[in-house]
Amino acid sequence: MADKVTINDIARLAGVSKATVSRVLNRKPDVDPATRERILHIIEEQSFVPNMAASGLAGGQSRLIGVLVPSLTWHFIPYIIRGVAEAVAQTSYDLVLYSMNDLEQDKSDALARILTTKLTAGLLGIVPGQSAKYVTRLHKHGMPIVIIDDQIQPPAHIPWVGVDNLSGAYTAVRHLIRLGHRRIAHIRGPMRNLCCQERHQGYCKALQEAGITPNPEWILDGDFTSEGGEIAARKLFALPPEKRPTAIFASSDPTAYGIISAAEEAGVRIPGDIALVGFDDLETSAYIRPGLTTIRQPFVEMGRKAMELLFSMLNTQPLSKQPLLHQPFGAANQTESEPVRVYLDTRLVVRASCGASQGPQSFAQAV
């Protein structure tokens, strides 16, 4: 065989047409099992690596999906990617990952690559934030795009999948109030982010409905990291005991981890002295001590739903027929003329850190 094995070589060795080899590579079901097995054996034997981009373009349609991500070190990104990959595994598509950092030139270069190569049939933008303007430009060029969550208000006319942050925060604080707490602190995330604003609104709403006036001394800024949570918690624990809150609602699970660390340092018992609730339900939250009571975000489901929505666009199904899975808390009904917004439910997961022994509650059960 020549140094570079081609799809024509595989077809000749298998005694089939190039189209049949292409159907096997694209995981099409309409191939005889024995023929498929023979082709796959030859592909492995010849160490053939298909050019998925070229084969897609040759067929008139790319079989690649672009996934635009922020830093891969963000704690929830792997969970979302898992859901995306699970959805894609059921299709003939493959994924291309575009990582965006904070440099404007890098964002511009990534945009240029996506537009000029035309390798991807569609794009998922995971928490694009300040990159949203680049995503909007791609959308204006006709690329099917779905945004997964975001730091800012989603661009108009681009489908979006995320969670109802306000209702999740409301549920968390209502839970603490039902446990008897009235002195409840909130360590927020970066308030430039839409989700942090919504979680703060949910915190305030729950307090106000219970006739509790939020204490500005107990509302501190964090940055979604353990370090940020630890710094903010130290300020609370430095207050005289009679002026401290008896409970803390953390904007993220990593923030809550920092609070636990600061409590150990200050000799504050969780939940004996301070009840604690986080927001995320990362896998590690079930194993730290005390186990963290938190609001579960369905990250994997978020990735799956976004991918299903993007596939519906690629199959030219009208987006207006896509079901809105959940209205945001207190929102009016969505009309068909509005962009698709899929809100997934959060869920309260009760563990030891809040001092309660009851099982998990859904948002519907909590209000």
TrEMBL record:
The answer to whether the entry has keyword Nuclease is: no
Per UniProt, residues of the HTH lacI-type domain are: 5-59
Fetch the InterPro entries from UniProt.
Answer: HTH_LacI, LacI/GalR-like_sensor, Lambda_DNA-bd_dom_sf, Peripla_BP_I
Enumerate the UniProt keywords alphabetically.
Answer: DNA-binding, Transcription, Transcription regulation
Query: What's a Gene Ontology MF term here?
Result: DNA-binding transcription factor activity
Q: Which Gene3D superfamilies match?
A: 3.40.50.2300, lambda repressor-like DNA-binding domains
**PANTHER family in the record:** HTH-TYPE TRANSCRIPTIONAL REGULATOR GALS (PTHR30146:SF109), LACI-RELATED TRANSCRIPTIONAL REPRESSOR (PTHR30146)
Q: Could you identify this protein by its name?
A: LacI family transcriptional regulator
Q: Which organism is it from?
A: Thermosporothrix hazakensis
UniProt lineage: Bacteria, Bacillati, Chloroflexota, Ktedonobacteria, Ktedonobacterales
